[in-house]
């Protein structure tokens, strides 16, 4: 029961962890990134409209990006990534527009404010209406050298995606203002495409290249996050194999338990054999005994696993309250809640594996019982 429940719970948490990370990463980053090859995107409004019209593309988002040092007037600073985007595009990006925790996008739409994450605001002690100072190393060229560009912006709103890496490091700025700040007037660095079916991204490549009508470089979300998601898959497979050993150990306990039962019931087996019971009948009796342990334990483990997965966040909060510590720290695991997503096919495979190990474990003790010689068993009785 405990082995099956542990396997189901851990695999569900890892599935939920991957799903949440994929949805949040792809919720703020495009599924396909279009970058220029033969020259900058100076005609980005027309090109964006062409790419957005490709069947299967949900939205095209022209971007200007740059690294800055963000600081507050009261003190404190942190590195940040500024993403310049049009207000109408950011409104369509539901990951941001639906998660404005404080303030609004009115100031952003008018070009007079920026949006920052809640964790960055907490780190710098900022609120809506305060000024945030951005310092870019790519500044103005003067006779004395390159002077960093420093400018303050009013905070229009605070967003919370739920992924601490983004909530603490990304600043959204109106596109026109970002073009001026990064000396990129009239052009964008890239156009990010959000598609309807991210897993079918390969089928869209030729259509996007044809719609662009110029030389472009295409990078999809799998290439940008290949190492990350490959590591998650390897960890998931290794965890499955390791936790399967718990079920295997439980199956070996069935073997030892049945062997002791056969020893204890030796005289009873001998009496049944002398009364006419066949070796097959004796074997079936002990096989049913061991199989019953496996079936009941597996079903109870599935039930326990489902109950824990459904209430996983409440259980986490309860143990955090009991221990007085933060379990599943969002700053370490990137997510603010512990996710769990049960996969039907995966759960069925766990059940089948557990039942198979239980049935295999009963074969040898049952065979030993069927081979017991009645004469040897009753000689000293």
UniProtKB/TrEMBL annotation:
**MacB-like periplasmic core domain residues:** 1-210
- Keyword Lipid biosynthesis carried by entry: no
Report membrane topology: Multi-pass membrane protein
Q: Which GO terms describe its biological process?
A: lipoprotein localization to outer membrane; lipoprotein transport
Give the location in the cell.
Answer: Cell membrane
Coiled-coil blocks:
none
Q: Using the UniProt record, give the first listed, main subcellular location.
A: membrane
- The membrane-spanning stretches of this chain are 238-262, 282-306, 318-336, 348-367
Report the residue ranges that make up the ABC3 transporter permease C-terminal domain in this protein: 241-374
Q: Which InterPro entries match?
A: ABC3_permease_C, Lipoprotein-release_system, LolCE_TM, MacB_PCD
GO terms for CC? plasma membrane protein complex
Q: Which UniProt keywords apply?
A: Cell membrane, Lipoprotein, Membrane, Transmembrane, Transmembrane helix, Transport
Which protein family is named in the record?
Belongs to the ABC-4 integral membrane protein family. LolC/E subfamily.
What PANTHER family does this protein's entry cite?
LIPOPROTEIN-RELEASING SYSTEM TRANSMEMBRANE PROTEIN LOLE
NCBIfam families found in the cross-reference section: lolCE (TIGR02212)
Q: What is this protein called?
A: Probable lipoprotein ABC transporter, permease protein
């Amino acid at each position: 029961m405990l082995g099956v429940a542990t396997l189901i719970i851990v695999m569900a948490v890892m599935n939920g962890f991957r799903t949440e990370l994929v949805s949040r990463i792809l919720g703020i980053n495009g599924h396909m990134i279009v970058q220029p090859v033969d020259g900058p995107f100076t005609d980005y409004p027309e090109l964006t409209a062409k790419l957005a019209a490709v069947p299967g593309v949900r939205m095209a988002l022209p971007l200007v990006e740059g690294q800055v040092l963000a600081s507050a007037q009261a003190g404190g600073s942190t590195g940040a990534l500024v993403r310049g985007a049009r207000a109408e595009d950011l409104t369509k990006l539901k990951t941001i527009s639906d998660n404005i925790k404080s303030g609004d996008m009115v100031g952003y739409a008018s070009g007079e404010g920026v949006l920052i994450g809640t964790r960055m605001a907490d780190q710098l002690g900022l609120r809506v209406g305060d000024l945030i100072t951005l310092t870019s190393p790519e500044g103005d060229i003067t006779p004395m050298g390159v002077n960093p560009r420093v400018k303050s912006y009013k905070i229009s709103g605070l967003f919370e995606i739920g992924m601490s890496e983004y909530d603490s490091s990304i600043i959204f700025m109106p596109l026109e203002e970002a073009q001026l700040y990064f000396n990129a007037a009239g052009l964008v660095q890239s156009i990010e495409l959000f598609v309807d079916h991210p897993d079918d991204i390969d089928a869209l490549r030729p259509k996007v290249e044809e719609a662009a009508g110029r030389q472009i470089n295409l990078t999809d979300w799998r290439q940008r996050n290949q190492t990350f998601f490959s590591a998650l898959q390897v960890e998931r497979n290794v965890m499955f194999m390791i936790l399967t050993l718990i079920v295997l150990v439980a199956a070996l306990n069935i073997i030892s338990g049945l062997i002791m039962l056969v020893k204890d019931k030796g005289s009873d087996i001998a009496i049944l054999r002398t009364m006419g019971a066949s070796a097959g009948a004796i074997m079936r009796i002990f096989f049913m005994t061991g199989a019953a342990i496996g079936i009941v334990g597996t079903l109870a483990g599935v039930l326990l696993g489902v109950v824990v997965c459904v209430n996983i966040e409440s259980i986490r909060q309860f143990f955090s309250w009991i221990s007085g510590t933060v379990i599943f720290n969002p700053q370490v695991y990137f997510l603010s809640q512990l996710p769990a997503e049960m996969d039907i096919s995966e759960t069925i495979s766990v059940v089948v594996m557990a039942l198979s190990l239980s049935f295999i474990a009963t074969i040898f003790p049952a065979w030993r019982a069927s081979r017991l010689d009645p004469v040897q068993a009753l000689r000293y009785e």
